[in-house]
UniProtKB/TrEMBL annotation, chain A:
Keywords from the named record: 4Fe-4S, Cell membrane, Electron transport, Iron, Iron-sulfur, Membrane, Metal-binding, Molybdenum, Nitrate assimilation, Oxidoreductase, Transport
Main location: membrane
Originating species: Nanchangia anserum
Cell compartment(s), UniProt: Cell membrane
A UniProt-annotated Pfam family: Molybdopterin
EC identifiers of the protein: 1.7.5.1
Domain 4Fe-4S Mo/W bis-MGD-type: 41-105
The name this protein goes by in its record: nitrate reductase (quinone)
Enzyme class: oxidoreductase
NCBIfam families registered for this protein in UniProt: narG
Family recorded in the similarity comment: Belongs to the prokaryotic molybdopterin-containing oxidoreductase family.
GO cellular-component term (any): nitrate reductase complex
Gene3D superfamilies linked: 3.40.50.12440
Length: 1227, 459
């Protein structure tokens, strides 16, 4: 207030002389220079559409029609009197954005690679029809090779928009005609950062029947533990809720660096006495703020969390029997549910959930009995507690799907029943030294621990809780088996001393922090929180690490409490107006379903990484699982998951989907029947089994809002070789005949240059633009209208056009509109109206969850090909290719007609669609006048009108729907907001607080901070899982096979023993006898970039070190004779990196950090090793598939886009590193 | 008593996340012109480290600031006006471009313009913004040792550590760091102003902002060497000195400085201080450097004191400014709560940007032992066992007086302890506040200012 009060009152008086050496001549005239410098004509609100959760609103300053600089907006709606505000939000990267506007890296015009343009112009002379021209080029191997082999090698030349887009449109139409629409793929990421831009391109692609590629799983940001445990993709507290915590662990999450605008909530919360613990192997930026620094060896975090769980269970559950915790466990977790013990080779092993189907007399004649897990009461009675998956679908479950435990009082442990006996069960472990384990699985062994059991019918059963206690090594009197003697007993998994052996974290520290976390939760009513991030989530076994963390939050009753629970912050952006956006982006208003693909699987096949992948799944399975007795390749799991309809699979078949649908039609069959028959007969194959067959190549790849090759492409060098067909630094050998995957067709030559067309839209030059065949100049974030939201704050705000796109730049919205017009024009002649068949995986939040009881996977020979049951659903869609543009600019009839479904809740926007027609105007379509979406603002308004978070009527409608299912009061969550509407115009004025909606699981009601699952906890709404509770126990066959039924510690992959890579710490001699050392290779987020964005920004390069760097410890640097800023080379089987070393004592010995996405077109020299442009961080990584990530067809193990899928993990890699001997050379 | 008003800043280093947003917004607004490429009116340093320009705190080398003569008079360390005139054409105490850094850019235009049939991917090589020559291995920058980068090479050159005789260990177990954002200190007793042979530098009467009159500056650069903080820069294109203006065009219309408003750590406070201009020289000449802190506080006037208010009016300070001084968060942090300290008071310039020192994690041995810290109250007061050595902070903020730094940190700890009790609905132990010379209600008010810190309370 002070400043405002004096600002206007500045004295204009001339200065007076003061006492001594102070010269006080007032100099208003002399001060004019800086006053002029600060002058500007207008300030426009916008934001940055970067892959970051910041979602910060900025003031963009414009002077003389030129953007000059930016500062943050400070006008977020208040958080109330007792909480810090969200202002200002921003970071140095965002603050540097205006540099791009007029920088020499700006893409100003459309560019086409010379060789392609020449071929095109020649072809057009012969074939005036552009589609025929494209076909002619593709039919001529030399012509095709001329531009494919030139990718990434210069020669980009200007072309007109008309010419460039004509080529793109022709390639699409020709591809659809020849191969079917699922050979076209779009890669664009994180829609929340610019919803309309993502939506525009996705809408165009989906209208054609093309495939949108996922990003969350591909980035390894998806915490697979979340669908496993919560049945939810990810839902987390907003940053303001950190402030409500009284105990905060930052675990592998470098908050100041990666959540810069939110970090202050953490620094400030310390002042109300919040204790802060930082867990990080290096002295990370956030460690400065902690009271304590816990320093585990990289990747061993799960051991520490597991031991904390051991302490909490020992002291607070078994010791004190803290009712606050136990009541929570009973009500909100699967703890009380019964598990059958099964006889295995080694003894009894935990099996499947006992369901009503197993005990028909106990639960009566209820529907879906196999999906109705049961609990036991103290008197031994087996009962249905309600709220399980069985109640979620079907008439009979209406009003019953809730967690009220009406009239049911389950026991957590069978020891709380009158009659129990003890028996020993076998549990897996994976923490043994390689070679000391059991069977083929590296480091695996068996522990025998006792659980209380009872007989139910012919089954021997115990509870999840009893198994969890056994799993955590928590000894109770009267139980058989091997148990740790004390916390100091390192011989048994679970104890703090055991964790110390693996992690290096002192046992006393582990025990104390576990105890404090629990104690603080009791004292505060659940306000203990764990912020967890990429430092732990990017490991191959991140799901197991996360499950040990999530267990801490649920053992201590913190989940769903403000200030408590998990706070996962890795690429998790929350697209608040989810429902309307999904309609827009996937064109669900016109066609259903959309084609949505798991990117990791897509790239793994497209880039032929499977041909080099020596991992044997047998080396990582449970020692209690049946060995198949042969090498199991990760790709075998991918193929099986695809064929069973667990995971999507595009391109789907080795024939065009259009041909399949039309052939079926011609034979008078449904496409489903026809395709199932063809598969059965062996006349049709899934494309994923033969990715080197030209029939199966993805042909056209669109990149926009992304930089695949400079940022996310794990195994970048494989992308270059196989996807693009250019030189690469891969040194890995392809698989020998005996190693080749059983499910794959092996072709002697791995195909190179599979893509016909790589096209990209961007406003700056990246590795991706430089490797593309066509580059289209995109408008920047200060030149368009769009929407932004995040989970870090509860506001929706806007992008606005501070200046019109300069030069020939176009917004994404306009760009795809132009393409839609061209495709429609060419499509009319070449395609017309076609019948398509879309293969759809068994879907999450749908009755598909009831498909495969107990997660028991039947053999293909037994189950055959039954669409929607043992293979994907097959849905026919009619596509009129002459009407793509018409549909692009109008809202189709399905939104209001068939309703909009988000997470199983159906919304009917009849009033909204009518209102949109009036507000936006209408345009003619084949189905009559439809609401217009012909500008980005109209599209934004449609997104807002059709979503509960921005339209209170729909939020209320959704809660009323949920009430019908739960039978509990829900509508009050949105009661005060029924009349609230957020429009685009509102977001231009100020960021708008969202409305509580069933699209998400928390509540913003009454100015409350958002906390995930608050609605579940407070209003007894089940989680979207098998039991309706948060799961400790997972009984899908594939999870059991991995030995991951329960939270468990799995170390980083032992690539040395699994596939013979160098062991970390190994010293060697390189090409010219330089000393080399093998180190763990981690790629954390960069301080001077958001992924590759801003990395090339001069301000950021100046504040960093101006080029590619690798951080290493003083010890490792000494081993190879490297000093700070020396040039080094890092190499492994995947590629080579040239960089400078930053030597620092804050890095642990044995590990190097190469900050993520330092794009190689900036000041990167040629490597000594290969003489090619030194790689990027992902030149040393590769795709590693974890089979359990692809488990599907059952309960929460069902598919949704970005909800589940194999992650593109990259934290388990090892590299050799050595000093460069020659001068650097750039050309 | 001559009452004058000064706009001063407090930065709470305990909240600084080292993000450098302040640096970038400042640079974009003020110094992205030709001749200013290397200038950062606002920069952020990782400590321990050598800073920008490198080792700027080494006054043996740079001869900035004031010294006190045996007779108790102040003179610029580099010598008085006569000596200045004698060396005007060869200023030996000027940092060279290598001490700042050679600004560079990249051949971005060669990415899309690379002709066809390159053997390898095109690249944008680095080149100097001064000479246009390629810089294949960039070897220094304005923030080279960020986050302890290159620590094995740089830590031994940290002037603060050298001054307090601290050998910083380069082992991971003993790691510590914090960030030090720096702007011009707009000193009450600025050496730069005293050093200017042209009379181009001046301190604005109404608000104390130190400026270079761009019309009068003759480019002698005595200000550059005179400033012990190295916060005056020389524009090689215009031949004039330039420096942080405290964003006066913004302050004049009631807006905080760019660096303050854009600080996402929310650690900057701006406010008015009233001080007795007649006593500036006397305070700056205080004999014992460790007494300079109190001497500076002493010449700051209590804006609620009726005599001060009267004298302010007599000196021509508008009433609105007196009211602003009464609401000044800066005054509260320096005086009422006593948690803000001046940067290098021993330079005797009486800087007007003050800092709350940072807390930091406990040292490895303490946490490894496990027994300590179970009680948060013990943990919060374990200041002497922090990772950041108190002597380092004292070398920076209190001319070596560790007790002063410890008292401030203990106040922060006491606030945490007191507030935790309130949060958990337990009665706070009044002894906690008393032990740090405060009352519970003061701790609660300080908490609101430091933690809740609403926009209008910061500025």
């Amino acid at each position: 207030m002070g400043l405002y009060s004096f600002g206007a009152a500045l004295r204009r008086a001339s200065a007076s002389e003061d006492a001594r050496a102070m010269f006080a001549t007032g100099g208003r005239d002399a001060d004019a220079f800086y006053r002029q410098r600060w002058s500007f004509d207008k300030v426009v609100r916008s934001t940055h559409g970067v892959n970051c959760t910041g979602s910060c609103s900025w003031k963009v300053y414009v002077k003389d029609g030129i953007i000059v600089w930016e500062t943050q907006e400070t006008d977020y709606p208040t958080t109330g009197p007792d909480l810090p505000e969200y202002e200002p939000r921003g970071c140095p990267r965002g603050a540097a954005f205006s540099w791009y506007e007029y920088s020499p890296t700006r893409v100003r015009y459309p560019y086409v690679r010379t060789q392609l343009l020449e071929a095109w112009r020649e072809a057009k002379k012969i074939h005036p029809d552009p589609v025929e021209a494209w076909q002619a080029i593709q039919a001529d191997p030399q012509k095709r090779a001329s531009y494919v082999s030139a990718r990434g090698r210069g020669g980009m030349v200007r072309a007109s928009w008309e010419e460039a887009t004509e080529i793109v449109a022709a390639a699409n139409v020709a591809t659809i005609k020849e191969y079917g629409p699922d050979r076209i793929a779009g890669f664009s990421v994180i829609p929340a950062m610019s919803m309309v831009s993502y939506g525009a391109g996705a809408r165009f692609i989906e209208l054609m029947g093309g495939v949108m590629l996922s990003f969350y799983d591909w980035y390894a940001d998806l915490p697979v533990a979340s669908p496993q445990v919560f049945g939810d993709q990810t839902d987390v507290p907003e940053a303001g809720d950190w402030y409500n915590a009284d105990y905060l662990i930052m675990w592998g999450s470098n908050v100041p660096l990666t959540r810069t605008p939110d970090a202050h909530f953490m620094t400030e919360a310390r002042y109300h006495g919040q204790k802060v613990v930082a867990v990080s192997p290096d002295f990370a930026d956030n460690t400065k703020f902690a009271d304590e620094w816990v320093r585990p060896h990289p990747g061993t975090d799960g051991a520490v969390a597991f031991a904390m769980g051991h302490v909490i269970l020992s002291e607070f559950h078994v010791g004190k029997r803290e009712e606050f915790f136990l009541d929570y466990m009973r009500r909100y977790t699967d703890s009380p549910f019964l598990i059958e013990l099964e006889r295995g080779d080694e003894g009894l092993v935990p099996g499947k959930f006992v369901t009503a189907a197993d005990v028909p007399t106990a639960t009566g004649d209820q529907p879906n009995p196999s999906f109705r897990p049961v609990v036991m009461e103290a008197n031994g009675r087996v009962v249905d507690p309600g709220g399980t998956l069985a109640d979620r679908y079907g008439e009979a479950g209406a009003g019953k799907w809730n967690l009220t435990l009406d009239g049911v009082d389950p026991v957590l442990s069978l020891m709380d029943t009158a009659e129990w006996s003890s028996t020993e069960v076998c549990l897996p472990r994976f923490d043994l030294p390689a070679g000391e384990g059991t069977g083929a699985s590296v480091g695996a062994g068996i522990i025998r621990r006792g659980v209380p059991v009872r007989r139910v019918g012919d089954k021997l059963v115990t509870t999840v809780y009893d198994l969890v206690l056994a799993n955590y090594g928590v000894k109770r009197d009267g139980l058989a088996g091997e148990w740790p003697e004390s916390y100091e007993d390192a011989s048994q998994p679970g104890t703090p001393a055991w964790a110390e052996e693996h992690s290096g974290v002192p046992a006393a520290q582990t025990a104390r922090i576990g105890r404090e976390f629990a104690r603080s939760s009791i004292d505060s009513g659940g306000r203990s929180m764990i912020i967890m991030g990429a430092g732990v989530n990017h490991y191959f076994h991140a799901d197991t690490i996360y499950r040990t963390f999530l267990a801490l939050t649920t053992f201590c009753a913190t989940q769903g409490k403000n200030g408590g629970g998990w706070a996962h912050y890795v690429g998790q952006e929350k697209l608040r107006p989810q429902t309307g956006w999904a309609q827009y982006a996937f064109a669900l208003d016109w066609h259903r379903p959309a084609r949505q693909m798991i990117s990791t699987g897509f790239w793994y096949l497209l880039t032929d990484q499977w041909r080099y992948d020596r991992v044997n799944v047998e080396h990582m399975i449970s020692p209690l699982a049946q060995s198949s007795g042969r090498r199991e390749a990760p790709v075998d799991s991918l193929v099986e998951a695809s064929q069973r309809g667990w995971m999507p699979s595009y391109p789907t078949f080795d024939r065009s989907n259009l041909d399949l649908a039309e052939t079926a039609h011609a034979q008078g069959k449904s496409a489903a029947d026809y395709i199932a028959g063809e598969l059965e007969a062996g006349r049709l194959a899934f494309a994923c089994t033969d990715p080197d067959n030209p029939r199966n190549f993805p042909r056209v790849l669109f990149n926009w809002r992304t930089n695949l090759l400079g940022s996310s492409a794990k195994g970048t060098e494989f992308f270059l070789r196989h996807m693009l067909g250019v030189d690469s630094d891969v040194s890995a050998e392809e698989l020998a005949p005996e190693e080749r995957p059983a499910s794959m067709t092996w072709r002697e030559e791995g195909a190179r240059g599979k893509l016909d067309l790589m096209v990209c839209a961007d406003f700056r030059n990246t590795s991706t633009t430089l490797h593309s065949d066509i580059v289209l100049p995109a408008a920047t974030w200060y030149e368009k209208h769009d929407l932004s939201s995040t989970d870090m704050h509860p506001y929706i705000h806007s992008f606005n056009e501070a200046v019109a796109p300069p030069w020939e730049a176009r917004t994404d919205f306009d760009l795809f509109k132009d393409l839609a017009i061209l495709v429609s024009r060419m499509g009319k002649k070449h395609l017309g109206v076609r019948r398509d068949v879309v293969a759809v995986p068994l879907g999450h939040d749908t009755p598909d969850e009831l498909t495969m009881a107990h997660g028991r996977v039947p053999a293909r020979s037994e189950c055959g090909w039954v669409p929607g049951v043992t293979m994907p659903k097959l849905v026919e869609v009619e596509r009129d290719y002459s009407r793509i543009a018409e549909k692009y600019v109008t809202l189709g009839p399905l939104s209001a007609g068939a309703g909009m479904v988000t997470k199983g809740v159906t919304y009917t926007p009849d009033e909204e669609v009518a209102a949109l027609a009036r507000a936006n105007g209408t345009l003619p379509t084949a189905t009559g006048q439809r609401p217009a979406l012909d500008t980005a603002i109209k599209a934004a308004d449609a997104i807002l009108a059709l979503s509960g978070t921005s339209n209170g009527r729909l939020a209320h409608q959704g809660f009323t729907e949920v009430e019908k299912r739960t039978g509990t009061a829900m509508a009050h969550h949105a009661a005060g907001s029924v009349d609230k509407r957020i429009t685009f115009a509102d977001t231009v004025v100020q960021p708008q607080g969202v409305i509580t909606s069933p699209e998400w699981s928390g509540s913003e009601h009454g100015g409350r901070r958002y906390s995930a699952f608050a609605i579940n906890i407070e209003t007894m709404k089940p989680f979207h899982t098998l039991t309706g509770r948060m799961h400790y126990y997972l009984d899908h066959d594939w999870l059991q096979r991995m030995g991951e039924s329960m939270p468990i510690y799995r170390p980083p992959l032992d690539m040395h023993h699994m596939v013979g890579e160098p062991a970390p710490g190994q010293l060697g001699r390189g090409g010219e006898a330089q000393a080399e050392v093998a180190v763990r290779y981690l790629t954390p987020h960069n301080k001077w970039a958001i992924h590759s964005q801003y990395y090339d920004n001069l301000h950021m390069l100046t504040l960093g070190r101006g080029g590619q760097t690798v951080w290493m410890s003083i010890e490792d640097a000494e081993k190879i004779g490297v000093r700070d800023n020396d040039w080094i080379e890092a190499y492994n089987r995947n590629g080579v990196v040239a960089a400078r070393a930053i030597v620092s004592h804050r890095i642990p010995e044995g590990t190097v950090f190469m900050h993520h996405a330092q794009d190689r077109q900036i000041a990167t020299p040629l490597t000594e090793t290969t003489g090619r442009r030194g790689g990027t961080h992902n030149s040393l990584t590769r795709i590693l598939l974890k089979p359990s990530h692809m488990a599907g067809g059952y309960g929460q193990f069902t598919y949704a886009f970005n909800y589940v899928g194999p992650t593109g993990c990259q934290r388990d890699e090892v590299t050799m590193i050595r000093r460069r001997t020659k001068e650097v050379d750039f050309s | 008593m001559k009452v004058m008003a000064q706009i001063a800043m407090v930065m709470n280093l305990d909240k600084c996340i080292g993000c450098h947003t302040c640096s970038v917004t400042c640079k974009q607004a003020w110094t992205n012109r030709e001749g200013t490429e290397y200038m950062w009116f606002n920069n952020v340093e990782t400590r321990p480290g050598v800073g920008y320009p490198r080792t700027w705190e080494d006054q043996e080398k740079w001869q900035g600031g004031w010294t006190r003569t045996a007779s108790g008079k102040l003179k610029p360390r580099a010598g008085g006006k006569l000596k200045k005139l004698a060396t005007i054409f060869s200023n030996p105490n000027m940092p060279g471009v290598e001490d700042y850094y050679e600004p560079w850019t990249y051949e971005y235009d060669k990415l899309l313009s690379a002709p066809r049939d390159q053997r390898v991917l095109p690249v944008a090589r680095a080149k100097s913004q001064l000479t246009g020559k390629h810089m294949d291995t960039i070897s220094w920058g304005p923030n080279w040792d960020d986050d302890l980068g290159g620590s094995a090479e740089t830590l031994s050159q940290d002037p603060v550590a050298a001054q307090v005789g601290l050998k910083i260990k380069t082992s991971i177990e003993s790691s510590f760091m914090f960030y030090l954002p720096r702007i011009c200190n707009h000193c009450l007793n600025p050496t730069c102003v005293a050093s200017c042979p042209s009379g181009a530098m001046y301190k604005r009467t109404e608000d104390g902002i130190v400026l270079v009159d761009q019309d009068k500056c003759r480019g002698w650069r005595m200000c550059v060497s005179g400033c012990p903080y190295k916060k005056v820069y020389f524009n090689h294109a215009t031949g004039k000195a330039e420096k942080c203006t405290l964003c006066y065009p913004r302050l004049e219309v009631g807006q905080p400085t760019v660096c303050s408003e854009t600080c996402v750590g929310r650690l900057r406070y701006l406010g008015v201080l009233l001080y007795d201009a007649d006593r500036v020289g006397e305070a700056a000449a205080t004999e014992n450097p460790q007494d300079l802190y109190e001497a500076q506080r002493d010449i700051m006037l209590d804006p609620f004191d009726p005599e001060v208010m009267e004298a302010a009016r007599a000196s021509g300070v508008p009433d609105a400014w007196v009211r602003a001084a009464q609401q000044s968060p800066v005054y509260a942090l320096i005086h009422t709560y006593g948690v803000a300290l001046p940067l290098h008071p021993e330079y005797r310039t009486l800087p007007m940007v003050w800092y709350v020192p940072p807390l930091s994690p406990l040292v490895e041995e303490i946490t490894a032992a496990g027994g300590d810290g179970e009680d948060h109250r013990i943990l919060f007061t374990a200041v002497s066992q922090m990772r950041i050595p108190l002597e380092y902070l004292a070398g920076l903020l209190s001319a070596g007086d560790e007790a002063l730094v410890e008292r401030v940190l203990r106040r922060l700890c006491a606030m945490r302890s007191h507030m935790r009790a309130i949060r958990l609905e337990q009665a706070p132990d009044p002894e906690i506040a008393r032990a740090v010379g405060m009352r519970g209600d003061q701790l609660e008010e300080m908490y609101r200012l430091l933690a809740i810190a609403k926009y209008d309370d910061r500025y």
